[in-house]
Design goal:
Helices cover 33% and strands 19% of the residues. The protein has 9 helices and 9 strands. The protein has a 5-stranded parallel β-sheet with strand order 2-1-6-5-7. The chain has a two-stranded antiparallel ribbon with strand order 3-4. The chain has a two-stranded antiparallel sheet with strand order 8-9. It is elongated. The protein folds into 2 domains: 9-161, SPOUT methyltransferase, trefoil knot domain (Alpha/beta knot); 176-237, Trp Operon Repressor, Chain A (Orthogonal Bundle), CATH 1.10.1270.20.
């Protein structure tokens, strides 16, 4: 096999209390295509399989009191160490409300990895000792609280999968997504060119790639300025 024929494959293992919730998500669209092409492997690991009691519970009250339960250190440690005995992970990610806010730069960096372990948080969180001794990266998908980390794990996985070469039918598509260049994407149009008198900008119909590219870039800057001005530097805002 020639070097340019070698396909990158990513493995994502997800520790969760509700594997069924995620199995459905990974069975459709781009994520399914990535797995069918052999470019992505996703495995759900049920934390309850590492429970130390017959009831399968993996949580307990927090020391010091307070409302809410905490995922215990022992089942989490046993689970992670068991997985580490079979896979050398590039990153062990915890989906935490106080983690680094997910953005395209983080996604791009993680997409270069081969083996990722994602730990879904629940209740009031996980025992801090797990974060101290195992977790290498903590990611939040927004400044709000979810019932569990499964949705965050799904969002992260979707972000990464579409960046794997060969997953999208048009690999240039991912490179032109919003945020890849620090801007939101420009407006897009399709047929018909004139609908109820609502017309597509003439420049997009001119057939001149340079003019079209210039319009798209200017439109992208203007939309970013209007919708997400925090993405622009002060220097860009002056223009």
């Amino acid at each position: 096999m020639q070097p340019d024929e070698i396909k990158k494959k990513m493995k994502i293992d997800i520790i969760t209390l509700f594997p069924e919730m995620l199995e459905s998500f990974f069975s459709y669209s781009i994520l399914k295509r990535a797995q069918n092409k052999g470019l992505l492997s996703v495995n759900m690991i049920n934390l309850r399989d590492y429970s130390q009691n017959k009831y399968g519970s993996v949580d307990d009250y927090a020391f010091g009191g307070g409302a809410g339960m905490v995922l215990q250190v022992e089942p989490l440690t046993n689970c992670i160490e068991d997985l580490q005995s079979r896979t050398e992970y590039d990153e062990i990610i915890y989906t935490a409300p106080d983690g680094e806010l997910l953005n395209q730069k983080i996604a791009n960096n993680l997409s270069l990895k081969e083996n990722l372990l994602i730990l879904c948080g629940h209740y009031k969180g996980i025992d801090e000792r797990v974060r101290e001794h195992f977790v290498t990266q903590e990611i939040s998908i927004g400044n709000y609280v979810l019932s569990g980390g499964e949705l965050a794990a799904a969002v992260i996985s979707d972000c990464l999968a579409r960046l794997i070469p060969g997953v999208l039918n048009d690999e240039q598509s991912a490179l032109s997504d919003s945020f890849q260049d620090g801007l939101v994407a420009p407006a897009v149009y399709s047929r018909p060119a004139d609908f109820r008198g609502w017309k597509v900008p003439e420049v997009l119909l001119c057939g001149d790639p340079k003019k079209i590219e210039s319009w798209q870039y200017e439109n992208s800057i203007e939309r970013t300025r209007q919708r997400r001005p925090e993405l622009l530097s002060e220097n860009e805002l002056m223009h």
